[in-house]
Amino acid sequence: MIKIGDFNELEVLRSTSVGVFLGDSEGTEILLPNKYVPESLKLHQKLEVFCYLDHQERPVATTVTPLIKRDGFAYLQCVASNEVGAFVDWGLEKQLFVPFREQQQRMIVGKKYVVHCYLDTKSFRLAATSRIKKYLTDFDNSIVENEEIALLIFRKTNLGWEVVINSRFLGLLYFEDVFKTIQVGDTITGYLKKIRDDGKLDVTLQPVGAKMLDKTSSYVYHRLVEAGGFLPLHDKSSPEEIKSQLELSKKAFKKAIGVLYKQRKIALKSEGILLIEDTSSKQRP
To answer: pTM for the complete prediction?
Structure first.
């Protein structure tokens, strides 16, 4: 079955004056208009396309990749508004409709909002909502503490930033765990810090436990290389200095340089940390 609002791998069935008809294994067909037909396309070839409804609510395929798909989340700009709702730009010719009842706050043309794309069960049309929390599922043990996760920042609170985790779960990123500038709409890599007793999820931007030592020490090492082998930071540097230069907490920085020092990759100087040249790979005369 062709899924509207998602990518489908379909077979080229026949060519017409208006485009190419594609089909699935169940015999369902959909039109790929001429403007999207690749020049090298051949009969019976498999092609991945995005399927949605055009301006006349007819199923249609496109080779254009949208900014959001059905059941997904994205940060999209409001480009129009009328008496029944607003419209956001999702990268396709037909804009994505956001009914007034689905707006967390009244959308303003020109501004961007984190939205969820869904299929309206009454009209069978794709639409979007900024009331995204009702589309986030309960935690189901599919991720574990310390695991790397994908984050979408969507709201600032008194404690920190609310985030969408892996396009599925709601999480909280506390201000104390943020060491770089972030804003609503950012998509960044994070780590699951803690699963609370009530099932709520705390996240962090830095790996924790043993993973932190590996990733953070590697990150500091490469920053040293980029800086020409020296960074004016040490264990007496202020948290603000470390945050400004490396986007790390002082605790994470000290652990990282401890690992690098034990590996004999750096020297600790009063003015900063110095990269030690690796001579192990050099040939002896």
So the answer is: 0.77
Reported for 101-106, long-range contacts at CB under 8 A and 24+ positions apart, including other chains, are: 102/127, 102/128, 102/129, 102/130, 102/131, 103/129, 103/130, 103/131, 104/130, 104/131, 104/132, 105/130
Do 81 and 125 fall within a single domain?
yes
How many Å apart are CA 62 and CA 92, to the nearest integer? 9
Same domain for 217 and 269, yes or no, is: yes
What are the tokens at 247? Answer: 């986007």
Q: How confident is the model at residue 244 (pLDDT cuts 50, 70, 90)?
A: confident
Task: Count how many residues are written for the chain.
Answer: 285
What is the number of structural domains in the chain? Answer: 4
Q: For residue range 42-66, what is the model confidence (pLDDT) as tens digits?
A: 999 999 999 999 988 899 999 999 9
- Distance (Å, whole) CA 36 – CA 254: 54
What CATH number should be reported for the domain holding residue 239? 1.10.10.10
The mean of the pLDDT values for the chain is 90
Convert the pLDDT of each residue in 57-99 to its tens digit.
Answer: 899 999 999 999 999 999 999 999 999 999 999 999 999 999 9
Is 281 a member of any domain?
no
Residue 170 is encoded by which pair of tokens?
A: 């709601």
Per the structure, the complete domain to which residue 17 belongs is given by: 6-62
Within-domain flag for 284: no
